Each structure stands twice: as structure tokens, then as C-alpha cells.
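User: Teach me something about this protein's shape.
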Amino acid sequence: MNSQVLLALGLIAQGLFASRFLVQLVKSEKANKVVSPTLFWQLSLIASFLLITYGFFRNDIVIVGGQLVGYLIYIRNLQLKGEWIKIPKMIRLFAFLLPFLLLLFLIFGLDYDWNGLIDNPEIEGFLLTWGTLGQLIFTSRFVVQWVYSEKLKDSVFPVSFWYISTLGALLIASYAIMRNDAVLFIGQGFGLIVYLRNLYLHHKTSFGRSKSLFLKFKPYRFPALMIFTAIVLFFNLDNWTVTESSEARYAQIGKEMVESGDYLHPTLMGIYHYHKPPMTYWITAVSYKIFGVSSWSARFFLQVALLAMLFLVYRIGLVYFSDDKKAFYSSMIFAAFPTYIIAGRALTTDAYLVVFVLLAVYFWLKYLENYKSFFLLLSYFMLGLGFLTKGPVVLIVPVILTLFSKFYLKEKQGPWSVHILGFGIFLTLGLSWFVFLFLEDPQFLDYFVFKHTVQRFATDTFSRSQPVWFYPALLIGTAFPWILILGFNFKRIWKSKDTQVMFLMAWIIVPLLFFSISKSKLILYILPIYPGIALAAAKVWLGLDEKSHKKWDRIQFGFHVLILIGLAISPLIDSNIVLNYKFFFILVITASLLVSLRATSLKVVDRTVFTAYLFVMGVTASSSYFFGSNPGLMNDQKRIAAFIEAEIQGSENILVYDKRMPSMSFLTEKNIISLYDGDEGLNREVQFEKGIAWKSNLINLQDEPDWLIKNSPKNSVMMVKKNKLKKLGSVHLVFENSIEIDGWILYY
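Assistant: First, the predicted structure itself:
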């Protein structure tokens, strides 16, 4: 059988095994006691049959034989429930006999290597024993369950089943840690939650009225959301290195700050780089000081920023709605936006900017509760920090909300004296770095105000132009279906004069119009809009009737299925894409859980929000393996840097043709010499340079076309993008060897 089909069989089986316990947990929560649902045993039987088939075509007696015991127990439980007899007789006979026939064929029809079962050179003897012990304990739980059920003549789970499951999961989880197998650990971690929860239900002495699963976990549901989101965000965060171009640029500037000790004059590859205020560089430099310079440490505080955003959306929801349920739904919807995750996958300013925007909005809303001046001053202080992060854009959302509050909602904004003091704090803090550089060099004012503010908004100076409909189309894809839910209910919202939702719609619509008419457009520019979408969507969603909930739930499920299928078949669409089994494993587990939740009695209003979050978390976890396996597609130069370090001994310089590649500065300790030949990305702004040292690392080949032949330094490696070979010409005259790696040609 085709290896890909075999892999799919094995992964689907594992997904069904995981989803059966989700079904059991949800059913138990609804019943407020441990139950043994029929669907649990049906899923178990199907999964076991698939795994037996998988083991047969792999010629693996251990898998087939090991599954056979459980397979028979699953059938027996269906018999005890009276469900097995409902299956047509021929199907029952086929299902019962086939596994035995497959096992007999493997035993007597093959010359099997029995010694290989206990002699695996890749696993140490202790680890093999430890893992095997855990697996044996894990398997024995169903034997215990079967014996107990036979005594009662009913399919039930004894409390010992969950104790054995917990012990086995702990052993296998520790085995996974020793083997550095993150996927195995995650699987057992999820199982432990289920087993411990069932133990709690077993030992509970009094049972209350059944209620929503979310409400049942109300005291700790938000902390659980934060913890699980943190696990996903930090999962495999070092599986890929800094990517070109933005992340590598920010990461390298922070690195140069640490190396030079100059935190006021950002430099990129030795040349002053004043495109953005320094807050992001400072935060990154602090991370390097704590953890050392690495791709992981460059992204560490970025993940902290994402968690801070999630926390602030929840807190804003509590203040604004005075309703914990709406606040929690808002935070879960916000975490389910792909743009939220994108903001943490590569280092940029946007996540930090949104944290300061949300802090400013939160403290302003706290101020409007009781007009305590301290909160308003804190709000202006956060605006100052935001200005040091990305300049004037920090003001867009807070100013719009303040104007809407004052002139449409007619809310008092407190005494002007406090605002004047707060504005003074904002100006003093926010402009401090700008004033410092202006006093050093007056041309900095023109550079930042006009070139990097006015021109960025009004012209295509930075080659980031997109059509006016770019952001509305982006919102449909990245805030699906929540932005559509708001759109289809906008007329009703307008007629009802719901001031809370109208306030949030102002948060969404006005900034969206502002960014849409701007010439410069990137995906994360509109990140400050998404908290408003999440808050408004939560309020509107909870106000819809059950019929609407079911309709949007079906639409969202269809959307998720399409995305998962697209990800699974992506190598068929683009042959350059490489996906490993761990990627597929997490994807299948995610799909299985989404399908399983639809088979439970979880309320649709809860399920739609929960599955939206679960879907994005699953895709996020699997994407880390995609990033690690496809460095060429991700503009990750880790394989190039590794080849230079390991294979090209004595190389001191890396010549990069017509590209600015800060990632090579970040990943190696080599001297990087950029060769300019018309690419605007290398048209560096050197007007602030006080010397000419930079000229030795930025060569203009259009002025010096013979530089490579006459002045190229010894012990050099040259990187040329494959699509620029024709433009470069006869570079092979200078170098003896060449190799292609991830779309680049290395000459050495």
C-alpha cells in the first residue's frame, strides 16, 4: 500500500482515539457523572480496526497483536450496551474474523524478525523499558474495564480505569520528555486532563444541576485559556530561525544594540536605521540580555505580548460589558483570529503596539467608571510608550473612541486639567527619543515626519501599495465568520441603537477606512481593529437565536474542513512543500476533535466559539513543523548558514548579491558585504552616517562593475538568488565551487 495512504490510516486512527475521550468527557460533564457513551466504543472500534490494517500493511505484528485485545474489548462493550446486535450479521462476522486472519498471516506467512522487537539501536535500553512499561500499563486499563463490566453486566468505567490511565500517561509523558517528542507529550497531556477530570467526577459526593460546560469551569476557565494559549504559542518556537525580511531586520538591530551598548542609535548591519522608534529593539535587546541571542529569545517577549493582548481583551470586556461571559467569549474569539497568531510568528512592532493601545483604552475605560485621575494619566502614559513603538498610529483607535464617547454617547470626559497633564506626560515620553535625535541632527525631523509618516501614508514609497478593498477582503478571511456575523446584523444593531455595539463598530469601521485609503498596506497594520471585532462579535453572538447559532456553526465547520483539507493536500499543489508526520498528526487530532465535538450535546452557542479557538490553536501548533521543514518557502536561511559554518572552512566574508540579508548577520559571525545592483532594498539611507566605514560593507556594483574580480576579499562565500543569476553574469570566474540551497546559489 502507498506509504502516504498508510500514514493517513495511522494518523486518522490516532485522531479517533483522541477524540473518543473528548466525547466521553463532554458527555460526562453534561451528565455530571462519569458515563460510558456508545459513541466512545464505536470510535474506539473504528480506530482500532484502522490501526490493525495499518499494522498489517506495515508487517508489524506488535501493532496488530497489541490492538487485538482492545479490539475485542470494544466489541464486548458494544454487546453489553445492546448496540452490537443492531449491526448486520455479515458485517459483524467480517469485523470479528478479519483481525485474527491478519494476525495469523503475519505470524505464519512472514519470516519475522522477533529480535528487532527488543533491539532498537535508536532507543536506549532504559528508555525502551520505561516506554514499554508505560504502554503495558496503558493497555491493561481496558482489561480492567472489561472484567469490571462483566461483573456488572453493563458497560461502565471503574475508578481504577482512570487511575491506571493517569499512571500510564505520566510514564509515557516522561518518556516523551526524555525522547524530546513534543507531539507524544501533548497527546498524553490532553489525556491527563481527561483522566483527572473523570477521577474528580468519580469522587464527587454531590451532583448539582447540569449546566453549560463553560459555566461549570467559570472560576478557572480564563486562566485555563491563558495557560493553553501560552503552551501553543511557545510550542516549537525555535523550530525555525529569523525570517526575511522584517523579522530578521528587527532581530539583528536588537543584536547590534546589545553588542554596541548604544540603545539610542539603532543600526542595521552597521548603518543607522531610524525607520521605527526604538521600543521593539529595546524589548528584544532585554530578551537577549536574559536568554542570549537566538531566534527563540527574539520572539520570547512577542509571545508575552500576545498573552497580554488576550488578557487585556478580557479585562476590557469585563469593564465595558460588566459581564464575565461576554468578556470570556471576547477573549476566546480574539485568540481564534489567525492575524493574532501571525503577529507572534515573526518579530515586528505590531504586537507591542497593540498591547499599548489596549492598555490605553483599558485605563481610559477604568477612568470613566469613577473619574479617578490616576487611570487617565496611566492611559496617556501608555500612549507615550506606544508612540515610542510605532509613532502616531498609536493614537488612531484611542482618539476615535474618545471622540465617539464624547460627541455621540455624550459621556463626560472629566476635567480638562487632568487631560492637559496627561497630554504633557504623553508628549514628554512619546517624543523623548525623537527630540534627542533632532537635537543631534535637525534633518531627523524631516526624515521621520515626512518620509516615514506622511509619505508612507500618501505614497507608495516603500512598495507596499494594495487596492482599497485589500483590508475588507483580508478581514473576511482572517475574522471569519465573526466579521460576517456583524455585517449581516448591522441593520438590526443600527435600529436597536445598541450603544455598546455602536461604540465597538466605531472601533472597527473608522480605523479600517483610514488604513484602506493609505497607500502603504501590510497585513498587521490593522491588528488594532481585531480586539474591537472580538468584543462586538461576542456581544452580538450571545444575542442571536438558536437558529442563527446553528446556521453560523455549520458555515464555520465547513470553512474549517476546507482549510484542513487544503493544508493536508498542499504538497500536491506545490511540490516544494515538505510536511512531516508530526504536522499531519496534529492536523488529524485537530480535525478529530472538531468532528467529535459535533457529536456531543455541547450547546451550539458554546461549541461554535470553542471550535473556532481549537481550530486556530491546532493549526498554529502544526504550523511550527511546517516552518521548520520548509525554510526556503519561509525565507529562513538556517540551512545556508549551517552549510557555510560546517562545510566551508576558513570563510570570513559572505558576499550577498543585490539583497539585504540581515538574517545572515544574525545567524553567523561572518562579515557581511552587500553588493548593490539596483534592488531598492539595498538603497540604504546613509545621510546620518558620520564616517565612511560603512562603504566597505555596501558595494555599489553599478559604480564598480569589476569589484568582484579586482577587489573581492579572500576567504569569501557569495550568495546569489537563483532568479538573479542572469543579471549577475559570469560570477563562476571568481569562485571554484557552487551549490544550490533553498533557492540560493552559493559560490565558494
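Now, about its shape. The CA atoms of residues 37 and 203 lie 19 Å apart. The first strand starts at residue 267 and ends at 268. If you'd like, I can walk through any region in more detail.
User: That's plenty for now, thanks!
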